[in-house]
């Protein structure tokens, strides 16, 4: 586009210096986003900063923003839970209200669309008091099945209502898995029916399995989907994720290793054969983290900000502050190992509980942050009360404390049984905190094992899911930390320099979107 010049305006003779300046500014301008762009609708059960319980919330926030930088228009559709902070609720504007026919017997529910925009991404919150008035994203399946049938259908109805027809409907986890199914059944002849669909597996353990009559009632899906290749599972159950995976035009999961693992019986959660059948349309793309939120240089939640150059010094200050806050002995020479996690079976906490007594010799300290299963919460509380000053267990969800642990700890534990991608090891590396991880899923793809011979690698790893191997990995880390600080600082530096941003992965998603061409015939409608 040429700029319009008024008649009175005269071309000004520019000095060489000015031209140089212009040339420089042109040079430093970010490259124009690659053409053509795509319209993407994101559907998922959580999204930071409105509601977050784990990594899905981070991805739903960060990936749309990264895609926007690549020229995509992105709209994020979410349930309007009561637990969304009032400050956000107040800034939402009403975009419309209508009745949504939901159930097999024609029962309808009112739904409202409430919208807000942040940094160029539009968020549409789908509101219904009966389904989302109770607060948190996940309750029990008896409640969650109806509310996520409602959510998937309401999202498609909202896109039609708003007349914002995406090229790709990017759905996340089982809670949004019926959307690709509706797209090719009940909504096939509606405007949104032109879109292609992508379903991303963030965690295959949760699939939305419930008895068939209940799912058929709430979803109102046609009976011919009651087929073992689609909705049916076992003798009398329906599996919402399985059906979504069958209907989706593309399946992604959050690391290449997890994409391969879930096609095996051990990791497949009963869907390995189904995934092998659909593997032709499945890809693994590793997650990134939002480096504007997770940035040790600018993080206002930590005691001292730092970059690569002053990390060794400033991390000590952060460690002191963390030790003080958590009631740990304030001694910067002690290695401090952090863990920030949901406290569930998945996270390898049984291994950790088994070896912790052996590690508690008064030198290395531990800072645990998490909530979850009672047995782990109790075990960590017990360790804390028996080893005050050496172990701290914060059994709560606390974003600021999480930041302080990432910044103040020396090493970070992720000994998971399975880990689709894992964000905590990425955040830890970004903060120069050395990960100790099991070689599974995204942990394997993102943490290069330390090789003492060549002095290379990002962290300490172990392969089989066995407590002695975890113990060995921690001992190897201690060895380098206590005996060869120069090498340790080298690992810290490599971790901080590692690219864990969304940049690369967002490009891969965009490439996939470009291959998913909307139905051209319908597109012309
Ligand atoms: P998952 O999605 O399986 O829970 P991820 O590693 O993908 O695991 O993501 C976990 C995210 O949740 C990270 O951003 C982590 O910092 C955060 N998190 C987990 N537990 C807590 C907690 N108790 N307090 C604060 N943040 C937490």
Explain this structure to me?
With 525 residues, the chain is α/β, with parallel strands linked by helices. Helix content is 39%, strand content 18%. It has 20 helices and 18 strands. A nine-stranded mixed β-sheet has the order 3-4-5-2-1-6-7-11-12, sandwiched between helices. A six-stranded parallel β-sheet has the order 15-14-13-16-17-18, sandwiched between helices. A hairpin with a 3-residue loop joins strand 9 and strand 10. The longest helix has 22 residues, at 141-162. The structure holds adenosine-5'-diphosphate. Adenosine-5'-diphosphate binds next to helix 2, strand 13, strand 14 and helix 14.
Topology diagram in text:
Layout: H1 16-28, E1 39-43, H2 55-69, E2 73-79, H3 86-90, E3 93-101, E4 108-118, E5 121-127, H4 129-132, H5 141-162, E6 168-172, H6 178-184, E7 196-201, E8 209-211, H7 212-219, E9 232-233, E10 237-239, H8 240-247, E11 250-253, H9 256-261, H10 272-277, E12 282-284, H11 311-326, E13 336-343, H12 349-359, E14 365-372, H13 374-386, E15 391-394, H14 399-408, E16 411-414, H15 424-430, E17 434-438, H16 441-446, E18 460-462, H17 467-483, H18 485-497, H19 503-515, H20 520-523
Parallel strand pairs: 1-2, 1-6, 2-5, 6-7, 7-11, 11-12, 13-14, 13-16, 14-15, 16-17, 17-18
Antiparallel strand pairs: 3-4, 4-5, 8-10, 9-10
Q: Which key phrases capture this entry?
A:
525 residues, nine-stranded mixed β-sheet, six-stranded parallel β-sheet, 20 helices, disordered C terminus, binds adenosine-5'-diphosphate
